[in-house]
Structure formats: C-alpha cells, structure tokens
From TrEMBL:
It comes from Acidithiobacillus caldus (strain SM-1). It is found in: Cytoplasm. Pfam families: GidB. This is Ribosomal RNA small subunit methyltransferase G. Belongs to the methyltransferase superfamily. RNA methyltransferase RsmG family. The gene is rsmG. Specifically methylates the N7 position of guanine in position 527 of 16S rRNA. The lineage of its organism: Bacteria, Pseudomonadati, Pseudomonadota, Acidithiobacillia, Acidithiobacillales. Keywords: Cytoplasm, Methyltransferase, rRNA processing, S-adenosyl-L-methionine, Transferase. SUPFAM superfamilies: S-adenosyl-L-methionine-dependent methyltransferases. It is an enzyme of class 2 (transferase). PANTHER family: S-ADENOSYL-L-METHIONINE-DEPENDENT METHYLTRANSFERASES SUPERFAMILY PROTEIN. GO terms for molecular function: rRNA (guanine-N7-)-methyltransferase activity. Its EC number is 2.1.1.170.
Length: 215
C-alpha cells in the first residue's frame, strides 16, 4: 500500500486492543477491515481533507482505538452516529459489530461521499449513510443509542438529538476532560443526571464517555 505501513499498524492496533481489553472481541477479519478503512481514509485525505490527522500511526490511536473504546458500552439495536464526519466512531464500530444496524449521519457532502465509498468498499451491508442534518433525520425505528464523538458540546448535542431520544434510547458522547465545563453550560444536565465513565485509550490523554438516558 505504498507509504501505508500495514504490518506496523497491525501490531500497534493489536497492542492497543490488548490494552483496552478488546483483544478477543476484535477478530482478524475485523482488524483487516479496520486497517483497510484507515488506508482508504489516508488516500481520500490527500485530496478531500477529511481529517486533520495525517500520520497513520496517530490515526490508529486517535481514530480506531478511540472509537473502539466505546465497544463495551454499546447496547443491542439500531445505533445512530451523529456528525459522523469521516466515519468516527461509527465505521470502526460497524466493522467489528458487523451484525448490528448503524446509521451514519453527516451533512458535509465530501465526508458523506467518503462514507458511501467506505460502505461499498468494505461491504458494510448493515450500515446506512444519511447525507443531511441530524435535525432532519427520522429513524425507521427508535434507536438503541445515539453516538457522538467531537460533534458538539453536550448542550448542543442534547438539543439537536432530542427528537431521537426515545424512551429506552441512550446517548453516548465520547469526550475529553473539557466535558466538566460543558456540563455547567447544559440546562438539562441536572434533570438528566448523566454519568461519566473514564476511557483509558492508549496513546491519548484522558478520555471519557458521557452518557444519559433518552425519553
């Protein structure tokens, strides 16, 4: 793959999965898919500027492992990746959870085109790409969870997804340490009582999963 160091990245990915406790949860076929996804992202990034991260080793930590850290917290059922961007966290999770339904919601035309390419290239048959604003999206059934990674502040995320937060739906937001400041600016925080779960992602500063029940 030219300048894409597949074997070194596979080793880095494997070590990261061990550190996350996901070594047995992510098989070899899924690892092949994850590295193929990164290769496609690096190739498209040259002309479409999908992500500011260019180094493939940094992509393993900041894209793959950071997304896969959510894996143990996913419920069964339909999962909505809001503001999916280049497919994060939805694509890595969908590669591993190939039998689960995902909708990747992304309003940016270039990024949505990349998501459609990845959908075809990797054969992600349980993935749907919605090229549009989340406020205009209506799911075919109540979602089990709404996922977000670096999409918006907690208050903004809550506001833009309230129509998706049915009874039984969880909102799962991957955040950095700044989530505490965001809580102070979130009017509904007190009534929703969100919980935060530390995520120890190898190679990254402290990460957190902030989640709350919909309804």
């Amino acid at each position: 793959m030219g300048d894409f160091p597949t074997e070194l990245l596979r080793q880095q990915l494997g070590e990261g999965l061990v550190a996350l406790g996901l070594d047995t949860a992510v098989g070899e076929a899924a690892r092949d898919g994850l590295l193929d996804y990164l290769a496609q992202l690096q190739r498209w990034n040259r002309s479409h500027n999908l992500t500011a991260i260019r180094d493939p080793h940094a992509m393993v930590a900041q894209h793959l492992l950071d997304s896969l850290a959510l894996l143990p917290h996913l419920p069964d059922g339909l999962l909505l990746d809001v503001g999916s961007g280049a497919g994060l966290p939805g694509v890595p999770l969908a590669i591993v959870r190939s039998g689960q339904d995902f909708v990747l919601i992304e309003p940016n035309a270039k990024k949505a085109a990349f998501l459609r390419h990845v959908h075809r290239h990797l054969g992600l048959v349980r993935v749907v790409v919605h090229a549009g604003r989340v406020e205009n999206y209506r799911p075919p059934e109540p979602a089990a969870a709404v996922l977000s990674r670096a999409t918006a502040s907690l208050a903004r995320l809550d506001a833009m997804t309230q129509h998706l937060q049915a009874s039984g739906t969880r909102v799962l937001a991957a955040k950095g340490p700044g989530w505490r400041e965001e809580m102070r600016e979130w009017p509904r925080a007190a009534s929703l009582a969100p919980e935060s779960i530390p995520l120890a992602v190898p190679g990254l500063p402290p990460r957190f999963l902030v989640r709350w029940p919909g309804g």
